[in-house]
Amino acid sequence: MHTSDSPSTPRRRSKETRPQELLDAALALFVAKGFAATRSEEVARAAGVSKGTLYLYYPSKEELFKAVVRQNLASRIAEGQEMVDSFQGRASDLIVALMQTWWQRMEEEAAAGIHKVVLAEVRNFPELAQFYTDEVIAPADRLFSSVVQRGIDSGEFRPLPVHEVAHALMAPMIFHALHRHSFGACPVHGVELDPAAILRTQMEITLRGLQTRSGESGPALCP
Q1: Which CATH architecture has domain 66-210?
Q2: 3-47 confidence digits (pLDDT tens)
Q3: What is the pTM for the complete model shown?
Q4: Where are the CATH 1.10.357.10 domain residues in the chain?
Q5: Which contacts (CB < 8 Å, 24+ apart) does range 206-215 have?
Q6: How many CB atoms lie within 10 A of CB 72?
Q7: Which fold has domain 1-59?
Q8: Residue 211 bridge partners (DSSP)
Q9: Residues 61, 186: Cα–Cα separation, whole Å
Q10: Which of 21, 140, 145, 192 could form a disulfide with 162 if both were Cys (CB 3.0 to 4.6 A apart)?
């Protein structure tokens, strides 16, 4: 008989997908309310499980937040490293590809809001500050620094301090992520920002400044 198999299938599938449902619910609540104001029972309720079930997967709210960061930011940096390792071409083209990919995903996903949560609250949670540094800031710095160093080694870029250049590349993207989840989310009128246009301008300014010859033609930027 198949009657015993049929009901077990949806339960088994639900159990397998439960961690992802919890992470999705946690991301939405952390971005909307902040880390401190989000309660574990709210996350469990949004995911359709009990608080006890939540703790089976994530023993504390801190561990839940770490899992959200790993899935939505740290994994993206790891993907970027794979792109860097396999990329054949100019360092400037690689930088543009990285920036375009990152911004596309930040535009499409709620993960951009994590930056706002961290900057607003991390001072009150030193353990999370260290975690975020280890899992996001340091790997992102290594990623962009390695690309800048590649350009210097090939003679494409001027010899500049690579870590400072890496942070100069990352800063505008973080700014736009913050803007999207602050002023960009409010119906206010004033100076309207076009993130894609600003990103193109940022790339143009930065890459021209990096190149060894001021008159050298730059890479194709965002359309």
Answers
A1: Orthogonal Bundle (1.10)
A2: 444 333 333 445 656 899 999 999 999 999 999 999 999 999 999
A3: 0.80
A4: 66-210
A5: 206/95, 206/165, 206/168, 206/169, 207/92, 207/95, 207/96, 210/92, 210/148, 210/151, 210/156, 210/157, 210/158, 210/160, 210/165, 211/92, 211/156, 211/157, 211/158, 212/155, 212/156, 212/157, 212/158
A6: 20
A7: Arc Repressor Mutant, subunit A (1.10.10)
A8: 157
A9: 28
A10: 145
CB 179 within 8 A of CB 190: no
- H and E: helices and strands count for the chain: 11, 0
What is the Cα–Cα distance from 47 to 118, expressed in whole angstroms? 23
Helix (H, G, I), strand (E, B) or coil at 157: strand
The 10s digit of each residue's pLDDT in 59-86 is 999 999 999 999 999 999 999 999 999 9
Tokens of 72: 């939505």
Domain limits, CATH 1.10.10.60, in the chain: 1-59
Q: In the 3-class helix/strand/coil scheme, how is 173-185 assigned residue by residue? A: HHHHHHHHCCHHH
Burial class (CB in 10 A: 0-12, 13-18, 19+), 2: exposed
Task: Name the 3-class secondary structure at 211.
Answer: strand
Long-range contacts of 70-73 (CB under 8 A, 24+ apart): 70/135, 71/23, 72/27, 72/109, 72/111, 72/114, 73/111, 73/114, 73/135, 73/136
